[in-house]
UniProtKB/TrEMBL annotation:
UniProt-recorded name of the protein: UDENN domain-containing protein
GO biological process, one term: regulation of early endosome to late endosome transport
Family annotation (InterPro entries): FAM45, Tripartite_DENN
Entry-linked PROSITE patterns: DENN
Coiled-coil regions, chain positions: none
Subcellular locations according to the entry: Late endosome
Pfam families in the record: SPA
Length: 357
């Protein structure tokens, strides 16, 4: 069992501690093992302690260059041994997307630090989880890594909530994800951004790819540069200025106003037709069924999505080098689909790297 746990836990990369002292100074106090200056600055930016607005965000998560970060922040009660500290954040970095897992573990680390006032006890627990997949303590709760399945994390968001907010327009998000387009989501509250963005990859469940998710991005040069290296993504922002950055998105979601906008440069690829209308109706019908759970709605969308790929199959052929299948454009044109359907299937083949170079 220890070996199983260890295989799972090699996903953790590091742990860090950020403190705000009684003078209002925010400092990176400790980490294990070492970290880079770039990552340290990014994590200081993400933890809410340096924010002018003094709003406390108990838990935030995101991704930067394939490293996931999870940050739990707490206020220090008067009863704690930490006399010169008003707040602190525990930061975990990892290779995997699993907010529930790392929220549970960082909460335990927070309790340890509040109780003992020294990073040593945190490091012991971190190493126990890293090597055995488990840490146990009577007063601070126990944590078992294998209780937190990745698939559960993928299904934790509510697709029904997305559809109840956007209705038929959800098909715009589905199409953008199918075509591996760039989606930017804005809301002034980080919790709303994270809840919404984490759910979207489930619209293309057949890929089970959450690496496209960047749920907490700032308009800082290093973050935007990293983001723009990704071919398609879902990026969450709390800065309204992002709405003016059409170089960052093909589809812009203003979550606060429940509005979805397709950028002018993406309109041709995103032209909607009969196929999309059918997909939209299916999404809405399934999501509005009170008998269906979120995972059943995802399954319905996934089955319909597979049908679209079945549509594409007759127009693909084995490439000359015996590698993956490529699109036969002539065969697609001869089928005389409605223009919007043909256009979509062509762009889908491009997204799936099925075009002959």
């Amino acid at each position: 069992m220890a070996a199983d746990g260890a295989a799972d836990t090699q996903l953790m990369l590091g742990v860090g501690l950020i403190e705000k002292d009684t003078n209002g100074e925010v400092l990176w106090v400790w980490c294990y093992p070492s970290t880079t200056a770039t990552l340290r600055n990014l994590l200081l930016r993400k933890c809410c302690l340096a924010d002018e607005n003094r709003l406390l965000h108990p838990f935030v998560f995101g991704q930067y260059r394939r490293t996931w970060f999870y940050i739990t922040t707490v206020e220090v009660p008067d009863s704690s041994v930490l006399k010169k500290v008003t707040h602190f954040s525990i930061v975990l970095t990892a290779k995997d997307f699993n907010p529930e897992k790392y929220a549970a573990f960082t909460r335990i680390l927070c309790r340890l630090y509040l109780r003992h006032g020294s990073p040593v006890r945190m490091m012991e627990s971190y190493i126990a989880v890293l090597t055995k997949g488990i840490c146990q303590s009577e007063e601070n709760g126990s944590f078992l890594s294998k209780d937190f399945d990745a698939r559960k994390a993928y299904l934790a968001g509510s697709i029904k909530d997305v559809v109840s907010q956007f209705g038929m327009e959800t098909v715009i998000l589905h199409t953008a994800l199918m075509l591996k387009k760039r989606i930017v989501v804005y809301h002034p509250k980080i919790e709303a951004v994270q809840e919404f963005t984490r759910t979207l990859p489930a619209l293309v469940w057949h890929r089970q790819d959450w690496t496209i998710l960047h749920s907490y991005v700032h308009l800082d040069a290093d973050e935007l540069e990293a983001l723009q290296l990704c071919p398609g993504y879902i990026a969450g922002f709390v800065d309204s200025e992002v709405s003016n950055r059409s170089d960052l998105y093909d589809v812009f979601v203003n979550l606060a106003d429940s509005e979805i906008t397709i950028a002018p440069h993406a309109k041709e690829a995103m032209t909607m037709g009969k196929l999309h209308k059918e997909m939209g109706h299916l999404i809405v019908q399934s999501a509005e069924d009170p008998e269906k759970s979120d995972s059943q709605v995802i399954q319905d969308i996934s089955l319909k999505t597979k049908e679209i790929f079945t549509n594409l199959a007759p127009f693909s052929e084995a490439s000359g080098d015996g590698g993956k299948r490529v699109l036969n454009l002539e065969a697609l044109k001869q089928r005389r689909f409605p223009p919007a359907t043909e256009n979509f299937l062509y762009h889908l083949a491009a997204a799936e790297q099925m075009l002959k170079i």
